[in-house]
């Protein structure tokens, strides 16, 4: 797969953490450039498009040489203002966005939380649990077994036989989170998924993220909620305008980020 090298061998070349944990993800000088067609402007007063004259390929340099290593059992918060490159970095980790320079090495394929693409709004919540479960690699029998827990976690008992399109966005988000989090992921990426639910759901989601991490997973959590980050993460990286601004103790990085926004 472009942009993601799934290999344990390569990772052996990298040093373990100070307390002896193995690196599971190595991000090595990653650059991502998007090529975007700049929209044409209308000629004033004419409504005619100046597209042909002003159109051109623009390059957005979204990540500019980001490097870090993630170890087993880490829960890494990813913070930064809008447009700083957090989602781009997460997509590079799962191999969806190939780096234009540099590389990502991972011990196993990271999963992005969100089975959204696999779900079908016309189908019931029930059927979507089956679809999402299959997309995560579960067999039918396993999904049948997980079903009740997923429904309970999503708090959708009364609605599970209704088409998903009738759900509010919060209900849909809960269902997606519940499906994705039913699996013990080795490397899990959660990009802004906690922003939608109410406080109780957020707390249970955070607890589930901690559980995944305790069971030897590595979790990346992108969030604008500094509370979620502080409650959940053992380490925080701050991405600013495409560069790694700071990487360290959650309290210190969050404080520095907050200071920068005053
Ligand atoms: N698919 C894309 N095509 C073109 N530009 C993109 C695309 N995705 C993101 N960008 C641009 O890359 C930069 C980083 O975006 P993103 O990674 O979404 O930041 P964040 O998640 O931190 O808000 C922004 O300037 C954004 O406009
Ligand atoms: Mg984003």
Summarize the structure.
This protein has helices at residues 8-12, 51-54, 86-94, 125-135, 140-154, 169-180, 199-214, 226-232, 250-260, and strands spanning 4-6, 23-37, 57-71, 75-79, 101-106, 111-112, 187-191, 218-222, 235-240, 243-248. It has 262 residues and is an alpha/beta fold.
Q: Would you write up a description of this structure?
A:
The protein has a 6-stranded mixed sheet with strand order 6-7-8-4-9-10, with helices on both faces. A 4-stranded mixed sheet has the order 1-5-2-3. Strand 9 and strand 10 form a beta hairpin. The chain has 262 residues and is α/β, with parallel strands linked by helices. The chain has a domain at 116-184: Orthogonal Bundle (Helicase, Ruva Protein, domain 3), CATH 1.10.8. The N and C termini lie far apart (42 Å). It has 9 helices and 10 strands. Helix content is 34%, strand content 26%. It is globular, with a radius of gyration of 20 Å. It has helices at residues 8-12, 51-54, 86-94, 125-135, 140-154, 169-180, 199-214, 226-232, 250-260; strands spanning 4-6, 23-37, 57-71, 75-79, 101-106, 111-112, 187-191, 218-222, 235-240, 243-248. The chain binds adenosine-5'-diphosphate and magnesium ion.
